[in-house]
Amino acid sequence: MLKDLLDNKKCFKLVCGAGNEDAKEVERLVTIYSLAGCNFFDLCAKPEIVDAAKRGLDRAGIKEDRYICVSVGIDGDPHITKAVIDQEKCVKCGKCKVICPHDAVIELDKYKVKKERCIGCGQCAVNCPKQAIEMVSQLQDYKEVLPKLIEKGIDCIEFHAISTDEKDVMEKWDQINQYFDGMLCISIDRSELGDKKLKECVKKMLECRKPYTTIIQADGIAMSGSNDEYGTTLQAVATAQLFQNAKMPAYIMMSGGTNTKSIELASLCNVEPHCLAVGSFARKIVKDHLLAEDLFTNKNKLDEAVKIAKSLVDIMVNR
Fold this sequence. Notes:
Layout: H1 2-7, E1 11-15, H2 23-35, E2 40-44, H3 47-60, E3 67-72, E4 81-85, H4 95-99, E5 105-107, E6 111-113, H5 123-127, E7 133-137, H6 142-152, E8 156-160, H7 166-179, E9 183-188, H8 195-206, E10 214-219, H9 230-246, E11 251-255, H10 262-268, E12 275-278, H11 280-285, H12 287-290, H13 299-317
Parallel strand pairs: 1-2, 1-12, 2-3, 3-8, 8-9, 9-10, 10-11, 11-12
Antiparallel strand pairs: 4-7, 5-6
Helix pairs in contact: 2-3, 6-7
C-alpha cells in the first residue's frame, strides 16, 4: 500500500507535470521510471493522461506497489498555467523557443505554444524581451473532473494550494474531501505566505483529515530542478524542515527543485522526508530517450533509459 511506502520512507514520486498533457511522453516516462523502481506517479488531472500512465505500467509489466496521483490547482497556481504569445507584440526573436525546457514552443509562420506540452514554468514569459507572453490559468471545475478521474482508479489527489485567498483554498479543499476519501496531498510553498501563515493554513486544512491520511508536499521553488546542485534543492529542504519541526500528523514529501543532492542535503539538516518527488530533473536526464521513436522496440535503448532513471530513484528508495 502507498501508506506502507510512506511509513517506511521508501516512496519516490515521479512528477510527470501537472500541466503536462502530452500522453505519449507520459506513457514513456511511466514505463521508464516504473522499470527503474519508481512507485508513485503524479499526473495532469485529465482522464486521457491517467490512461496513458496505465499504459506505461502495462508496458513495464509492473502494477504491484505502483500508485497514481493527479494534481489539481487553484487560480494563481503556476502549475496550471499555460503560456500564450501575443502575436501583435511578438518580434519573432525565438528566445522563447530556445529557453523552453519542455520544447513547448514551435515555429511555423509564427511562434506558437503547444498547449499540451506547456507545464507553466513561465521561463518564456520572464525572458521575453517584448513582454509578449502571458501566463493564463487553466481552471477546472472539480465537480466535473474529479468523478471522472476517480472512476479511472487513482490512489491520491494532490491539491496545489499556492494562493493568498484562504477562502478559495478552503472551498476547493472541502470539495476534494467530499469527492475522495483516499490519500490527499497538499502542495504548498513559501512564495505567497510567510512561515507562520503557511503553517496555520496547512494546520487548518488537516483538521478535517484523519492522522497520516495526508501528504504535505513541501515545495521549494516549483519547476526549478533542471540543475543538479545543492543550491537548487535548498528551498525544498528548508520547507520540509519547517513542516517537520511543526510535528503535524501528516507525511512530508520534498519537491520543487529536487535532484540527486536533495536527500544528502536533507540528511545534513536532520530532515527525514517520507517521500522525494522529482519532476524537472527526472524528465531532463531521460529526455533524449523520450524523443526516440524506437524506444519500445529497441531493448538496448530502453535498458539505457531505465539505468539512467534508476540512478536517481535508488537515492531515495535505497537510502
